[in-house]
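// run 5 | inverse folding | seed 20
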């Protein structure tokens, strides 16, 4: 309701008495869909901040504002130093304009997701803030003005349908009429409620309704005994914007980020558990080195070309069946098991390295959630989270596709660490052919082949993070890491 005609009418009246004779100072944008307008008169300064997002459009009047050194653009330069002669509310529309000297007019069109600010000279559009709203480049101020007939005769003709009679009500007053049992009343009683509301709107109070996890609402009538009451429309808007950006949006963003962190934590915990189980299995099973030692200690008992040999384990004194390659001598079979032992030790080391990496990532995520809980301002939120994670940043990017984890090296040093220190032998390795670029690893899933779509997605990453990224066709090689 803060953009409703009946609210803006009171805001315009207040601004008219407060800003007459002020000069337009700098006008700039430094956030998407946010415009800052400075006005001054002698030592007095007034700031208007226009938030014009499609999901929330609102004006506010901060006491002070600082301009960023970068990413700040001056706008509406022709209006600079022009005097505010009058502030005019457009009849029955959610728009008003500053009548400026030299035949300029600065229009505030507060039409919900189509809100915009437009500068006119005479009747011609000079500049539009949100250029994507193409229709505003041909806007006519006269076309915005509407007439409304609130006579009993028209009320009867419209069968008491207040939305037909006063489109300016919109949905903003539905709960007002509902609370008074409007639909069950006679036509005369309806007209009394209707005209009574219009009379109350001449001198309303402004009520800010707050509800946990819901958008704050500014109304011209009270709906709950705990609603905050304002008598000044500008202060009511400031209260609404504080509640929206400081509480509602901050809470929503925190929840969104927290869910992502918690999902990553579950993935990390699952990964750690799975790899610890695999490592423990390798460490508790009879090692290949021990099998090779048994063969070497019992060469005289192994018949040539045997497929198996049953030997007594000199630790447990129990018989052990050992598989052999009949085409190899007992010594070469032992050598084969020694080679497997070396690979087994490497695999255990890789698993432990991966477990440590994930534990480090898990610790980092816990720190980030702690930082998230401490954040009190929306703009500080992401910076605070980022700063908490800088000390333990991973040496590669992590992507996910179809529940497969894709790791992308950040540079030549991390490429080597990724492929030879992090990747397991069952993982899939990808690299752009004949072009410097990132190593890309797809994590293997037990008893599952790599889906073609996942390989294509990882190949796209390998192509993008290569020197050939600007070419129209890039070949990407892939193979098991082993």
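// decoded
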């Amino acid at each position: 309701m803060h953009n409703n005609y009946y609210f803006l009418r009171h805001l315009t009246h207040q601004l008219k008495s407060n800003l007459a004779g002020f000069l337009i100072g700098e006008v700039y944008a430094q956030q998407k869909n946010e415009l800052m307008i400075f006005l001054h008169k002698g030592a007095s300064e007034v700031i208007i901040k226009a938030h014009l997002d499609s999901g929330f459009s609102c004006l506010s009047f901060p006491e002070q504002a600082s301009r960023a050194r970068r990413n700040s653009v001056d706008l509406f330069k022709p209006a600079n130093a022009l005097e505010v002669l009058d502030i005019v509310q457009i009849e029955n529309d959610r728009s008003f304009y500053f009548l400026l000297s030299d035949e300029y007019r600065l229009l505030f069109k507060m039409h919900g997701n189509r809100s915009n600010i437009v500068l006119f000279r005479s009747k011609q559009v000079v500049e539009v803030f949100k250029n994507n709203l193409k229709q505003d480049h041909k806007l006519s101020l006269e076309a915005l003005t509407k007439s409304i007939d609130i006579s009993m005769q028209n009320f009867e003709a419209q069968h008491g349908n207040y939305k037909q009679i006063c489109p300016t009500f919109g949905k903003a007053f539905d709960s007002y009429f509902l609370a008074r049992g409007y639909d069950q009343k006679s036509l005369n009683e309806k007209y009394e409620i209707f005209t009574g509301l219009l009379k109350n709107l001449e001198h309303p109070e402004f009520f800010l309704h707050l509800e946990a996890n819901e958008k704050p609402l500014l109304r011209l009538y009270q709906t709950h005994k705990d609603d905050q009451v304002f008598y000044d429309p500008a202060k009511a808007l400031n209260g609404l914007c504080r509640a929206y950006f400081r509480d509602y949006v901050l809470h929503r963003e925190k929840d969104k980020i927290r869910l992502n962190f918690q999902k990553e934590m579950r993935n990390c915990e699952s990964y750690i558990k799975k790899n610890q189980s695999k490592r423990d299995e390798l460490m508790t099973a009879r090692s290949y080195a021990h099998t090779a030692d048994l063969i070497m200690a019992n060469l005289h008992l192994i018949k040539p070309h045997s497929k198996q040999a049953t030997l007594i384990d000199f630790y447990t004194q129990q018989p052990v069946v050992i598989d052999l390659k009949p085409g190899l001598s007992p010594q070469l079979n032992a050598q084969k098991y020694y080679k497997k032992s070396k690979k087994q030790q490497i695999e255990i080391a890789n698993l432990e390295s991966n477990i440590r990496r994930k534990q480090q990532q898990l610790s980092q995520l816990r720190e980030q959630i702690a930082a998230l809980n401490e954040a009190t301002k929306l703009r500080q939120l992401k910076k605070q989270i980022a700063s908490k994670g800088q000390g333990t940043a991973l040496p590669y990017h992590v992507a996910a596709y179809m529940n497969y984890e894709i790791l992308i090296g950040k540079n030549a040093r991390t490429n080597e660490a990724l492929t030879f220190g992090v990747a397991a032998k069952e993982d899939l390795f990808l690299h752009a052919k004949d072009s410097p670029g990132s190593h890309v690893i797809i994590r293997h899933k037990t008893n599952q082949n790599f889906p073609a779509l996942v390989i294509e997605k990882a190949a796209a990453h390998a192509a993008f993070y290569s020197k050939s990224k600007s070419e129209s066709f890039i070949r990407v090689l892939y193979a098991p890491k082993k």
